[in-house]
Each structure stands twice: as C-alpha cells, then as structure tokens.
Amino acid sequence: MTEQTAVARRADLMPATDDDEFLAWLDELEATDADAMGAHAQSAAMQAQVMAFANRGLGALGAIERDLAALKEATRRDVEAVVARWEARTRPLAARAARIREGIASLYAAGALRPQAGKRSLALAAGTVGTRHHGAKVVVTDEAALAAAPDAAGCFREVVVRRLDKKALDAYVLGTGDVPPGVEVVPEGDDVYVKADPADYPALGDGEVAR
Q: What is the 3-state secondary structure (H, E, C) of the chain?
C-alpha cells in the first residue's frame, strides 16, 4: 500500500477510539478523591502515579478530539458532495423544465392552443395552460443604477440589526462598576485549562480495514 493510499484511507477513518480504555479511565476518576489525592501527592512516588494517571486522560482526550475533528471534516466533505451532486442533477432538469414551459406558453400565446369561449385556460389530460391577469408590475433590472438615482432615495430603507457589543459592555461595566440586569461579573482569578497533544490515527496495514 502506497503512502498516498494510506493517507487517503486515514482521512476517511471513522472514530477508532478504544471506548473500553476511556471508560476505564473515567471509572477510575469517579472513584478518586481529587482533594485527597492532592493532599497525599507530596511524595515523589505518589506524584509520579498522579502524573501517569493524568497523562492517560490527556491521551484519551487527544484521541477523542482527533475523532471529532475527523468526523467534522468527513461531514463537511459529505455535505459538499451532496450539494454538488444535487446541483449537477437538478440544474439540467430545471433548464429542461423551463424550456418546455416556455414552449407550451408560446403555443398558447400564438393562438395555437385556444380555450373555450369565455375561458382563460385550456385543460388537457396532463395539465392546464392559461393566463392570469396581473396589474402593472415594477421590475428592477439594475439595482445599482436605481440606488444612484437621487429621486429614488425614498425607495430604499436602512435595515438596522441590534447586536450586543461585548467590548463596549466590558468597558462600561468594568469602568463604571454598574452591573446591568442580565449581567454578572466574574471576579479576577485563574482558570484551569486542559490541552491534549494532537493524536494521530494508527498506521494501517494492507489487510486492516478502517472502522
């Protein structure tokens, strides 16, 4: 199997995480008293055990995030493929339908198809052809030219969308100390963050089937 083929197959992998290992880690975590572990982690041996335990969790997290990214990318490709296939199939059909509709309409407009006296439509076995009355219609053929016309200024309206300006809100609250309804201030402090190193899919052998 060539490297190019291996890369292509890895790109199409479904999640290949070992659920049993992850569940086992979570079971151990739930059975662990983090405060008690922190109190006893002063010894080198205990600290090494805690670090090894946390490292297993980071490995599990990295693999899950890898699978999430792979599924997101696979879904994006699937959606693009579906849209492209839909457009490729519907575009020629829509064009054919428009040509047929125009052709039948031209027969009616030319008088080749005539409804009964007093009727505005002709009913055939497969459908109906006729006319519907409409009042005067205004059709915009060049909106840019219309917008540039001074007399047409009243034909446009401004659409204002009201959105929260978070920076302005932060400046107001932190600068004045006033906390509006629906807002709370989180005191300054430190947040714990967890960042797993990216995990790669394992190399595939020639006889291995991607899950």
A: CCHHHHHHHHHCCCCCCCHHHHHHHHHHHHCCCHHHHHHHCCCHHHHHHHHHHHHHHHHHHHHHHHHHHHHHHHHHHHHHHHHHHHHHHHHHHHHHHHHHHHHHHHHHHCCCCCCCCCCCEEEECCEEEECCCCCCCCCCCCHHHHHHCHHHHHHCCCCCCCCCCHHHHHHHHHHHCCCCCCCCCCCCCCCCCCCCCCCCCCCCCCCCCCC
* Residue 90 resides in a domain: yes
- Rounded to the nearest 10 degrees, how much is the dihedral formed by the CA atoms of 10, 15, 16, 19? 170
Say if CB 199 and CB 18 are below 8 A apart. Answer: no
Q: What residues make up the domain containing 150?
A: 3-115+139-176
Residue 182 lies in a domain: no
Query: Using one digit for the tens of pLDDT, what is the confidence trace for 22-36?
Result: 778 888 888 887 777
Domains in the chain, number: 1
Residue 39 has pLDDT above 50, yes or no: yes
Q: What is the mean pLDDT of residues 12-31?
A: 69
In a domain, 132, yes or no: no
Does the pLDDT value for residue 2 go beyond 70? no
* 194 CB-near residues (< 8 Å, 6+ apart): 58, 61
